[in-house]
């Protein structure tokens, strides 16, 4: 992983301006799977917090939109990196399913987390001043929808 230092601080992501044709292959290589899980989970939490704050405080969103030249390139790069990561992870899960292997719940959850982060970052890029999508964090258990075929009619009372 190559980080470029342009300013006195080091960013979380590699420099989006660097001409790295191998980003698709090189950046997503994982040295430590646990590290990726932690980073994506933390990034999801931070993204959800910022998203909800900006949804409630439109004035902050408008101020951020005014200086979008400074943060938009990084978010565009983040969306690209996550897109590559999720595509590879989905392909891996699909291959496991084709082989008949047991579904790796850890990778499945990581895919959900990465999709949430990518979706939120994309919402910021599209229109940070009009955030209206409802996003469920990965840590909240979703209730399974009951399909119409599974609905059981209540028992009728017998007349005595």
Outline the secondary-structure elements.
Layout: H1 23-26, H2 33-56, H3 58-66, H4 68-99, H5 105-127
Helix pairs in contact: 2-5, 4-5
Protein model, in words:
The structure is a single chain. Helix content is 57%, strand content 0%. With 160 residues, the chain is mainly alpha-helical. The protein has helices at residues 23-26, 33-56, 58-66, 68-99, 105-127. The protein has a domain at 35-138.
Please state roughly what percent of the residues sit in beta strands, choosing from under 5%, 5-15%, 15-25%, 25-35%, 35-45% or over 45%: under 5%
Tell me the overall shape: elongated
Our Rg estimate from Cα atoms comes to 21 Å
- Strand-pairing-aware structural class: mainly alpha
Number of helices: 5
Straight-line N-to-C gap: 77 Å
Write down the secondary-structure element order: HHHHH
Average residue-wise pLDDT: 73
Largest sheet: none
Helix content: 55-70%
List low-pLDDT spans. 1-16, 22-30, 146-157
Quantity of strands, as a count: 0
Protein name: DDE Tnp4 domain-containing protein
Organism: Nippostrongylus brasiliensis
């Amino acid at each position: 992983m190559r980080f470029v230092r342009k300013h006195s601080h080091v960013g979380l992501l590699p420099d989006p301006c660097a001409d790295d044709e191998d980003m698709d292959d090189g950046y997503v290589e994982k040295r430590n799977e646990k590290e990726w899980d932690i980073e994506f989970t933390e990034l999801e939490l931070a993204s959800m917090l910022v998203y909800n704050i900006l949804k409630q405080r439109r004035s902050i969103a408008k101020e951020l939109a005014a200086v979008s030249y400074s943060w938009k390139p990084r978010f565009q790069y983040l969306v690209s990196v996550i897109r590559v990561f999720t595509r590879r992870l989905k392909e891996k899960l699909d291959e496991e399913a084709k082989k008949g292997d047991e579904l790796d719940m850890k990778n499945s959850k990581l895919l959900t987390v990465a999709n949430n982060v990518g979706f939120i970052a994309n919402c910021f890029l599209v229109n940070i001043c009009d955030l209206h999508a409802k996003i469920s964090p990965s840590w909240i258990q979703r209730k399974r929808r009951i399909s119409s075929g599974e609905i059981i009619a209540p028992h009728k009372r017998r007349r005595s």
